[in-house]
Amino acid sequence: xxxxxxxxxxxxxxxxxxxxxxxxxxxxxxxxxxxxxxxxxxxxxxxxxxxxxxxxxxxxxxxxxxxxxxxxxxxxxxxxxxxxxxxxxxxxxxxxxxxxxxxxxxxxxxxxxxxxxxxxxxxxxxxxxxxxxxxxxxxxxxxxxxxxxxxxxxxxxxxxxxxxxxxxxxxxxxxxxxxxxxxxxxxxxxxxxxxxxxxxxxxxxxxxxxxxxxxxxxxxxxxxxxxxxx
Amino acid sequence: xxxxxxxxxxxxxxxxxxxxxxxxxxxxxxxxxxxxxxxxxxxxxxxxxxxxxxxxxxxxxxxxxxxxxxxxxxxxxxxxxxxxxxxxxxxxxxxxxxxxxxxxxxxxxxxxxxxxxxxxxxxxxxxxxxxxxxxxxxxxxxxxxxxxxxxxxxxxxxxxxxxxxxxxxxxxxxxxxxxxxxxxxxxxxxxxxxxxxxxxxxxxxxxxxxxxxxxxxxxxxxxxx
Amino acid sequence: xxxxxxxxxxxxxxxxxxxxxxxxxxxxxxxxxxxxxxxxx
Lengths: 230, 225, 41
Known about the structure:
heterotrimer; A: mainly alpha; Four Helix Bundle (Hemerythrin (Met), subunit A); globular; B: mainly alpha; about 85% helix
């Protein structure tokens, strides 16, 4: 177990570098937007990764409520937190891309707006995890995660319809995509997923250690009480 | 043991009786709602044409804030009197309790709306160019959307630190699709444009999905720990 | 900033966020490890 992590780390680093090379060098330059369009190869896979993580979060939360497995609870915590990080990357690269292309930082474009609301939903999930106390946290968090997950389709659908009524410039563009661009996109997604897996693994280990420390503290206090009672 | 509907009705009537007798909560909430409307009127000039166009949004944001304050109130009393623990050990099904609370909150917020909406209509000189009866449908569906999730999250929040802020933190993001729908439907009806139907269908779907979720998960949340 | 400036800014921002998050994990892990060593003594 101890050796797999560094090995996977190196493999992931290689994959990330290869994907970066694909994005910056191999993929052809876009006609209208120029090289700035290459932000796309980080912007989009970040969102795809985040949503994969949120889906796992949803499943883990349901599993926790069904089976009360502490591991499921930690998986939910981990994927929720790291999903927020990846989605934050998407939300930051979005405006950085919009500015040179559209001249404005924020366009209330369908995807970006829906992503912002999704991010808000999962940040509120993280707040609940922080502010809930003790034994009830996993249950309350699981319920919140389920509500959040159920809300996502409503978010995307409602904002999509809103945008068809009040159109704004659309980012990401439509139309067919050059196969080399698709390759770069998928490569980066694969690399991000591997990277996300490693980060989740690390966060999982951190959480297990934290719970171990908490348990040790609790044991210490019990011992102190026993000692002072004598 | 009485059947669930009986328990719901009994709890609901008890809550309404308590509110009516104390009158403190309802009076302060009514005054708060009035204040919100007045503050909005100073922030968004009613004589400006643009304000009348966004009146749909203003009304619902005002109701949202009033509802949050109301929701925080209704569980606070239960917590003070340790009623929540009593509910947990009682054989009554948790859903009956939840429905009673949700319906009670719905009535409570509707009373506030009955005050706020005529004020808005008067201050902003609003007229419905579309079918006005649809506004009642939107109002009911929208209020239920806020109240059903609000009651659920309020019950969760009172078990956390910083409980007053926790409710809006949880409710606002989840409520965004519903708020968008309410506002768009209201605006469409007021301005006589088409498109309200889509938003009404969305609200119905939202209400069904989240009411079901609340009923399925309330017992679990109540008994957490 | 020229067009490419934005491109590098976006990629840099991505990695700054990821490295930053990893750094918090690593530092918290180190601190907890120290704590548990102390408790075990």
